[in-house]
Amino acid sequence: MTDANDIPITVAGAGSVGCYVGARLAAAGRNVTLLTRPALAATISRHGLHCSDLEGHNIDVGPDRVTLCTTPSEALAGAKLILVAVKSHDTEAMAALIAEHAGGGAVAVSLQNGVSNAGLLRRRLGAERVVDAMVPFNVVQSRPADAPPRFHRASGGVIQIERTATGLRPVLEVPHMPVAERDDIEAVLWGKLLVNLNNGLNALSGLPIVEQFGDRHWRALVARQLDEGLAVLNAAGIRYAPYEGVPQRALALALRLPDALFQVAAKRMLSMDKNARSSMWEDLQAGRRTEIDYLQGEIIRLADQVGHPAPLNRRVLALVKEAETAKKGPPGLPPEAVWGAL
Questions:
Q1: Any idea what the Cα angle at residue 68 is, between residues 29 and 286, rounded to 5°?
Q2: Exposure string over 65-81, b if 16+ CB within 10 A, otherwise e
Q3: Collapsed DSSP state (helix, strand, coil) of residue 334
């Protein structure tokens, strides 16, 4: 039986989540290659990287513990397991690179937001070479001067992976990064997408998530978006799983509670770093394209198919697109501006 530490693992698109996962794997002795941007690769090659979480499990991974690559051909050649962590709009391009440079036996695991990435990978690589997965937590990245870049898991959760005959859990599960196998991964992904609809609102607000959820006006927007998403999925006959054990309908009800009651009811949900924001906020901050088309956009496409309205999701998508175009960072809108004329 092959030792898990002997399997060459490449993290394709090692940004915040990719570097966190790669660092945890490398710290446990896995053979990890990070395919990342040149600037980040140069920093890690000088200082290594620092990984932390809410529970205080801090590790430093020296540059000798990971292989750093900036060219796909080098990073993918010889990889047996490829953890795809690129943004959803880059999935097709990454699938083509994997097909070109990785061996035919390499397996790709999608660690991405949205529900369509594994399908795109399968069309290019074949169904038997792709495993879907869901990462429930967000990771905050910071780069202090002349020090290791820091990757902090700012919220909790267990990585969920599609159950396969090969059984990847023993390879991916390492100390302080639990993994669970699921037979209903598509429902898990739809369940997460419903919760991830808040990413756009958080990016528009510019607030830390804990502060945003402390405001009943913002929570009302989150609940309204969630209601629209639930109605559209129900109309389309799409099954969705509870998120981290919490049914989305119950979450929508809790979001409408008065502040004091919500703080009690949602204590577990609010167990996150006080500075945590969504990855979409980070994208606007960096002037990058967001994944709004793969979150609100999925709900809107389904709404059009089933003839169901989703006005708030449409408005959030439009406002995020405006912010993308402006390239001035998160716009810091008040909730009233998001409601608009709805």
A1: 115
A2: bbbbbeebeebbbebbb
A3: coil
